[in-house]
Structures are given as structure tokens and as C-alpha cells.
Amino acid sequence: MTEAPEKPAPAKRAGRTLPFRALAIALLILAAGMAATVALRAPAGNDSRFTVGDGREGMVERPADPLATELARCRTAAPDTVDERCRAAWEVNRRRFFGESRSSILPKVDVPAASPAREER
Q: What whole-number distance in Å separates Cα of residue 36 and Cα of residue 48?
């Protein structure tokens, strides 16, 4: 009965919280400093990376595609106009786009030369 009253045991993590908080704050300050450095290093200017102009200087001329020219002419024609050149151009364009269907091409059959008829006796 003469024993002293028991003291509560100290928390195990009580000694580690201060260094952890200091490290977290230091990392937060470091990250904010890096973000500020990146933002200030490359300021956004008014210059555009791509030149936008009204003139044709600096543009490369491509050779004209005769099929594209013909199709452009046919697009301007009235829908009820019958033009064989336009039909041929659209057909060439369709074949170029879809490829030629191998099932629609008939195989070439070699016909043997006719043998002379035998005379009956």
C-alpha cells in the first residue's frame, strides 16, 4: 500500500512526430520552389510557334493531280448532267479507294486449239 501511483506510459511515437513534420514541411517548400522555378524559367510570350500569314510566301506548291482536278470539275456539275469523263473519273477514284475486287474479275481460261474433226468412215 505504500506503492507509488503508476504513471501512464509515454507514447511510442511522441519523439518522432517533430522530425516527420519538419521533413514534410521542407518537402512541401521544396516542391513549391521547384514549381515556381519552372514557371518563371519559361514565361509564355506573345509569339506564336507557327506563323500565320495571308500571303503565299513560304508555301510549297504541290504538283496538280489530274484525277483530283477532274473530280473537282465534276463536283461542280449539275447532278442530272451525264458526263462520261466524270463517270470514268469517279470509277477510277472508287477503284483507287476500295481496291479492285478480285472476285469480280473473271479468271482467264485458256481454250485449247480446236482439233480437226475426224472424218467418219
A: 23
Q: Domain segments of the chain: what residues?
A: 66-99
Provide the sign of the torsion angle of the four alpha carbons 52, 55, 60, 62, taken in this order. positive
Task: Decide if 53 contacts 59 (C-beta within 8 A).
Answer: no
- Classify residue 15 by its DSSP letter: T
86 with 74: CB under 8 angstroms? yes
pLDDT digits (tens, 9 = 90+) for 33-52: 999 998 888 666 666 666 66
Calculate the CA dihedral of residues 4, 8, 10, 11 and round it to 10 degrees.
170
The residue assigned the cell 495571308 is 54
- The residue type at 41: R
The residue assigned the cell 519552372 is: 38
pLDDT in tens, 77-107: 888 888 899 999 989 898 888 887 655 555 5
> Contact at 8 Å (CB) between 81 and 96?
no
Q: State pTM to two decimals.
A: 0.33
